[in-house]
Specification:
This protein is an alpha+beta fold. It is built from five helices and 24 strands. An eight-stranded mixed sheet has the order 9-10-23-14-19-20-21-24, with no helix packed on it. The protein has a six-stranded antiparallel sheet with strand order 12-22-15-16-17-18, with no helix packed on it.
């Protein structure tokens, strides 16, 4: 109910803010329209004035010429009248010739007595009746209706999520979709006060989208989608919450050997005995080191209590560090990648009672695969001080699958999905991820969903018992 109240308050604030925003946009659009009309009016007025000036000049020039020609004609007529009174034949002939030459050269006889331009200006009239109708027909932009996410068709697999949706009605004007998602640890409707922001995927042309390469470090993810035409975006769909179940943990620095440099997802062997680390060595023998375990956990695992709260959890040649979770039920998957020049490392699981001098696989409370690149290269599965050689290349990245309830621990080539080895047993105590490294380093990858290829392997037990599996039973 509180979440709904928060949603209503958020919606009220959104109405106020969005209303002010669209009113501002409307003012801008009308101001822009007014500006265009003013520019058009000024341009057309200037055109009329130019036409007026042109015609005025033409008519004025023609009027001046005609007035001058008329004055010349009146002077010639007056001269001709006087010539009629001349009695001397020679003078009369001279005057007659002069009149003839003047008539021939008179401007009045060379002028066109038709106006060069018309006084008609109707060709510059306008009719805005169509434009007025268009303006009167102005409406708010059509907004696409909110899509509907089909949660039954959404798929969560292999750390990928495919979201599918549909539109409530056919809309040919939809140009693209916008998908938003965020991680959350709350089931149900998204919370307004959720600590995470929405992430956006824009310009989706289809009615589905797949997010790949996700790290599932939250219990759930929220999704919502909206449709967009060329102009505006519609309302968001009703949000959908999908479960993103995966094991998330880190290396537990408080459980590591002093010769290991430890970060959340990275460890490296350090021959200086950890002197270069930021945390200072404390204690009587200068071996104990305090640290803060990672707070990450899942609903099916818990964080183990520190055995001593110091860095002498492992010593001697047990260059070991544990994960900061305890596996008590369920199926879980994580991956490890070793440095290329790493001389020796082991990865697997163990009971929390693993001794400080115990090496992985050399007792009945730990299970692992071991890689040795020192002197003679070996690749083997180890448990209870028994080793089974694995006749295959060592992968660059190894996946570990633990089915606590089913009593199964399997190792895979993360790239090719090849099964490397499977232990079958009955786990009688909670497990912790365990790692050993010497002269090299390991990188940890968690937040990984159980790969889909494991489902088919679980259904086909014979494949798990084939020559490539090399099962070792353990207590």
């Amino acid at each position: 109910m509180q979440n709904f109240i928060d949603t209503l308050n958020h919606a009220l604030k959104g109405v106020q803010a969005n209303s002010a925003s669209v009113i501002g946009d409307l003012d801008e659009e009308f101001d822009s329209l007014y500006s265009v009309l003013d520019e058009m009016k000024e341009s057309m007025t200037n055109r009329i004035k130019q036409e007026q000036a042109h015609k005025t000049q033409e008519l004025q020039n023609q009027l001046t010429q005609c007035t001058s020609a008329l004055e010349d004609a009146e002077e010639l007529l007056e001269f001709s009248t006087r010539a009629l009174s001349i009695k001397n034949p020679e003078e009369f002939s001279k005057a007659a010739r002069q009149i003839k030459d003047s008539v021939t050269m008179a401007p009045a006889f060379r002028l066109c007595l038709k106006p060069k331009v018309s006084d008609n200006m109707t060709h510059l009239m306008v009719d805005f009746s169509q434009e007025k109708k268009m303006l009167q027909a102005l409406k708010f932009l059509p907004v696409p209706k909110a899509p509907e996410i089909d949660s039954d068709k959404c798929l969560v697999a292999d750390n990928c999520i495919t979201v599918k949706w549909k539109t409530p009605e056919e809309d040919s004007k939809i140009d693209h979709y916008i998908l938003e998602y965020r991680k959350t640890n709350f089931e149900g409707l998204p919370r307004v006060k959720d600590e995470r922001c929405w992430e956006i995927v824009d310009n989706i042309k289809d009615t589905e989208y797949t997010l790949t390469g996700l790290k599932f470090d939250s219990k759930y993810m929220n999704f919502r989608v909206r449709a967009c035409n060329k102009a505006v975006a519609g309302d968001f769909s009703d949000p959908v919450t999908l479960e993103t179940k995966a094991l998330v943990f880190s290396f537990d620095g408080t459980s590591s050997h002093l010769n290991l440099k430890v970060e959340d997802s990275w460890i490296e062997w350090d021959s200086t005995g950890g002197k270069g680390q930021e945390t200072k060595v404390k204690g009587k023998e200068n071996k104990g080191r305090s640290g803060t375990p990672s707070p990450k956990r899942t609903s099916v695992v818990t964080r183990p209590p520190s055995v001593k709260g110091t860095r002498d959890r492992f010593t001697g040649e047990a260059y070991t560090v544990l994960g900061d979770v305890v596996i008590e039920s369920g199926q879980h998957y994580w991956e490890i990648k070793a440095q290329k020049d790493c001389k020796s490392y082991s990865i697997g699981v163990a009971y929390r009672s693993l001794g400080k001098f115990d090496q992985l696989g050399k007792n009945n409370i730990s299970w692992c695969i071991h890689v040795n690149n020192w002197l003679q290269a070996t690749f083997s599965a180890k448990h209870n001080n028994k080793a089974k050689p694995l006749e295959m290349p060592v992968p660059d990245r190894i996946g570990i699958y633990c089915d606590f309830d089913g009593g199964q621990l399997s190792f895979f080539n993360s790239d090719s999905k090849q099964l490397l080895h499977t232990f079958k047993t009955k786990f009688t105590q909670p497990l912790v991820p365990a790692f050993m490294v010497w002269c090299g380093g390991l990188t940890l990858y968690t937040g990984l969903q159980q790969p889909s290829f494991l489902t088919s392997l679980e259904k086909n037990d014979s494949e798990m018992n084939g020559s490539s599996s090399g099962i070792i039973n353990g207590d």
